[in-house]
Amino acid sequence: MLLEIIDYINKGGVISYILIVLYLLVMSITVERIIYFITTKSNFCFIKKILEDSIKNKNIHSFESNKWTMKYKKNQSVRIINFYIENMNLEKDAFNEALEREAFFEIASMERRIWLIAQIGHIAPLLGLLGTVIGLIESFQIMSSLGAQADVAQFASGIWVAMITTAIGLIVAIPSFFIFRVFERLIEKRSAEMSGAISILNENYSNKIGSSITLLMKNNNSQYDGEIHENF
Description:
By secondary structure, the protein is mostly helical. Helices cover 84% and strands 0% of the residues. Helix 2 runs parallel beside helix 10 (164-205), helix 8 packs antiparallel against helix 9 (152-162) and helix 10 (164-205) runs antiparallel to helix 11 (212-231).
């Protein structure tokens, strides 16, 4: 089976090799991002309860030293809460700018290389189609050079070989779009959790931030929707 797959790839030519490299790139990014999201995961409901208890007990700094928040210290919501607490004494404008910048960095960290998966999903079918067109051109050239000696079997053989790159392109594109969607929703979920955590802090401590962070999250999600619709 493996030898047959390798044979198909070889018949597809250079375009097939390029598509395989792109597929491996998608898989490597996917594995790296999965590891990232696993190592930064947390139970937001649990984190929210710890935050609310800290506020209720009028000891917000106990959140930072809680054993569970220390365990989930790499999580985006925990990081943004800790940043909020550590910088609460800043002036309004400085605080607003610093928190928005920190939220932007957290989102950028989650988005890292995700855009490349979407672009490969967009490009792969086009590369596959290009390989097919090139293959068909070569088949027609061979048929033309053979003239009356050409037969239908030779032409059909050339066509199915040419179609290999289209198939490989779709094999690369379909999982790429699926993976991109999964990561997109995960980023939206964690961005919403960050926004929710900030809202809880604002309700109890100040109105310094208002909707600026929430707007940042919404703009981030809208950007992803625009990318995926454009790719389709």
